[in-house]
Amino acid sequence: MFGPAAAIFLTIIYTSLAVVFVFIQEKLPGNKLSKGFRFGISFGILWFIAMPGTSLFFGSPLLHELLTGALDGIPLLILGLLLGMFVATDNNHIANKKPMGYILPIIVVTLFFIVGQYLAFIFIGRTTPHFSITGTDTFIWTLALGLWMGAMYCLLKQGIKEESLLKRSFGFGGVVIGINWLFFNLFIILIVDVPLLDPIILAGLNILSVIVGMLVFETFIKKDTNKM
User: Which of 150, 142, 172 is nearest to 221 (CA)?
Assistant: First the structure.
């Protein structure tokens, strides 16, 4: 049963990523191949960083999960490159090259992500006997995830066309990252016997924290940094 179920899950994940790319690629900066690389590397590294969470929660060997993360991340990079080659269009949009334009949003999104992640741990940590909410490895993993979520905001935010900040935030956090992140977390129910609500709570609070981080940055901080 695992094989067919996993195939269905991965088909849904790859299809949803392709649909998201079609909708955001027009506004992304660069040529077709750079757009595809930007998109593919975003999700490839996200999966690579996320995979050691299985070791933290369920005690599986860390090296095995790192290898699995790499093997899962490479196809996502290839998918992005293929989408760039065959779906994307070239444009002259310019990427933000100011250092402060990257550093501050990454810091803000990371801080909110850490808060959201530890709130989720309060609810789900009780059902995973191997997990330690106070562990150093737990914090390092959460920090790495938060930093990359912030980096993804910098890499992909230009793809959201909405003028409304609220719609942009929910579009980025809830759709561009959110759909993929929800299915990634739900995949665990095919491998380990866990309550269905656990991955939903974890993914939901992660997504919400990214949305709030983006709202806070663009509302209270971005305007000031633009004056520098």
Answer: 150
The C-alpha atoms of residue 150 and residue 125 are separated, in whole angstroms, by: 25
* Token pair 């993804």: residue: 152
Helix 99-124 vs helix 197-216: crossing angle, to nearest 10: 150
- Domain interval for residue 180: 2-225
3-state SS, residue 72: helix
Tokens representing 55 are 């070791």
9: tokens are 């899950």
Read off φ and ψ for residue 87, nearest 5 degrees. -120, -35
Give the predicted TM-score (pTM) of the model.
0.92
- Measured CA to CA, the distance from residue 91 to residue 29 in angstroms comes to 7
Cα dist from 99 to 105, 145, 202, 216, whole Å: 11, 21, 31, 19
* Structure-block tokens of residue 223: 């305007």
The count of structural domains within the chain is 1
Q: How confident is residue 227, by pLDDT bands cut at 50, 70 and 90?
A: very low
- How many CA atoms lie less than 13 Å away from 172 in the CB half-sphere? 30
pLDDT digits (tens, 9 = 90+) for 43-86: 999 999 999 999 988 888 999 999 999 999 999 999 999 999 99
